[in-house]
Specification:
The chain is of the alpha/beta class. The protein has a single domain (4-187), classed as 3-Layer(aba) Sandwich (Rossmann fold), CATH 3.40.50. It is built from five helices and seven strands, in the order E-H-E-H-E-E-E-H-H-E-H-E. The chain has helices at residues 11-23, 44-55, 105-111, 124-134, 159-177; strands at 4-5, 29-34, 63-69, 84-90, 100-104, 140-146, 185-187. The chain has a seven-stranded mixed sheet, sandwiched between helices. Helix 2 links the parallel strand 2 (29-34) and strand 3. The longest helix is centred in the C-terminal third of the chain and has 19 residues, at 159-177. The two termini are 29 Å apart.
């Protein structure tokens, strides 16, 4: 299934697309890419999403891939009625640029920082906390993030972050295979 480019349209058109996607039958697993490709490394989540979508063999409708762009909390309704969620994003946790972080289960909710995580409005942490408050948080959650080097107005990932894309995508494909379960937090 091709990813839906939620982050590439105007506000009214995005709301309409989100409502349309919410009306469709839900795949049990959602892979959600977040970020802004106009802000250098902040776009890494979308780049990883493209790689995962190419690599994952999920033609049975069990997985839905969505480009969430910078829509933030507007994506909240897309999490409802899912068994599992994999979020791909830039994740600033203070490690070396290009470090791939994997946060799973409750640790994803607890450890994913709020403001300052990435440059776009409403990051993975905000989205997960809101989903927990509304009762829409899937049972199995994984956040796979790449530590950014530069978040500035410029298209293209830095070398250190670009080199991490394949590793992050491989981890995401493995998470899809195991349905995002597991209690670990990893820095790889």
């Amino acid at each position: 299934m091709k990813s839906s480019p939620v982050g590439t349209c105007g506000p009214d058109r995005c709301r309409a697309r989100i409502l349309l996607m919410m009306e469709r039958a839900r795949a049990p697993l959602l892979v959600l890419g977040l970020g802004n490709p106009l802000l250098r490394d902040d776009g890494v989540g979308l780049r990883v999403l493209a790689e995962v979508e190419r690599a994952a063999a999920c033609g049975d409708g069990s997985v839905e891939f969505i480009d969430g762009g910078t829509q933030g909390l507007a994506l909240l309704g897309l999490l409802a009625d899912r068994h599992a969620l994999v979020i791909l994003d830039a994740l600033r946790l203070g490690a070396a640029p290009g470090t791939v972080h994997v946060l799973r289960g409750q640790r994803a909710l607890d450890a994913a920082p709020g403001r300052g995580l990435s440059a776009h409005e409403g990051n993975a942490g905000d989205l997960l906390r809101a989903a927990a408050l509304t009762g829409d948080l899937p049972a199995n959650v994984a956040v796979i993030g790449v530590e950014p080097e530069l978040i500035e107005t410029r298209i293209g990932l830095t070398t250190s972050v670009e080199q991490a894309v394949a590793k992050a995508a491989a981890i995401a494909v493995a998470c899809i295979g195991e349905r995002a379960g597991g209690p670990n937090t990893e820095r790889v």
